[in-house]
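The aim of this short unit is practical: by the end, you should be able to scan a pair of folded records and say something sensible about each. We start with the first protein, listed as its amino acid sequence and then its structure tokens.
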Amino acid sequence: MGRLIGDGHLFLQVVDIAVLPEHQKKGLGKLIMKALMNWIDKNTTCDCYVSLFAVQKACLLYESFGFVHSMPRSKGMVYARPQ
């Protein structure tokens, strides 16, 4: 499960990324993120601020989709969209 909240144009937050424990480690989190990121890339401009809050064990997943820590030791991450 996963969803985006926000105004759909300037501000979006990735929330509720969850996979049942018995289905974890099967790549489902990556599939969810890929679908959300495809929607973001097709429906927003490069000015859209995309953020999320991550638990430590999920940071590598989000980093693989272009998210970076928004400040040192912060749980928040923002999408560093390629120019």
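Turning to the second protein, read its sequence before its tokens, just as you did above.
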Amino acid sequence: MGNETTWENIDRLYLLCQPIMQVESLSQQELNGYEVLLRSEKNNRFPQQEFSTMIQTESGNQQLMEWYAKELRRLCQKKPETRFSVNIHPQQLLWQSTWSFFETMAVHKEQLQIELTEHPVRIQQESFDLSVAIAKIKAYGYVIAVDDIGCGQNTLSLVFANLASVDCLKFSLLPFIQLDEEIGFSFLACWLKVAQKYQLELIVEGIENREKMVQLLEMGVHLQQGYLWSKGERL
């Protein structure tokens, strides 16, 4: 990284595709779609520092979103019947390059789900309203998911304020691994009721073994994602 917010090594980025499974029984499981995860060949992890720097400016975000558009076009063309879920940091909604991305990629809107992450906007603009932004994304025809529900700013209030636009909730069991998984499942039960009442999809992440898969299935959770199936693959 230099003084400008551009990334000289952007070609070393790649997308890892982690399957989201439709689980009907122990023996009946099929692919529902993929979450695309940004990774760097430097260490095969999410490039947190570089990503955070890039999305702080229009120029940096533009470079990133143009790269994303190219890679997602390739995936959509390679697997035209498959849905891909793409993470968008709310900070990115400040920049025109993100809206240009939504407009350009609308031709693939049937294959793309937009996941809004739980992070707050770091550079505030008085005119920015997250609910307005969510409705604008929806107007392009995209499926919208609220990621890591219950964490950060992705609260119950946010969901209720945007019920007309939100299609899916994503809940992760991972934060509860070091705390109390029983509490995690209690939180999940509440979110499941919300999803059922308002006819929202619910995807649960962090499924690492068959026991959790079965427990979720018994609760009525059929959309599951985690290392039990795959850590992700390059397509």
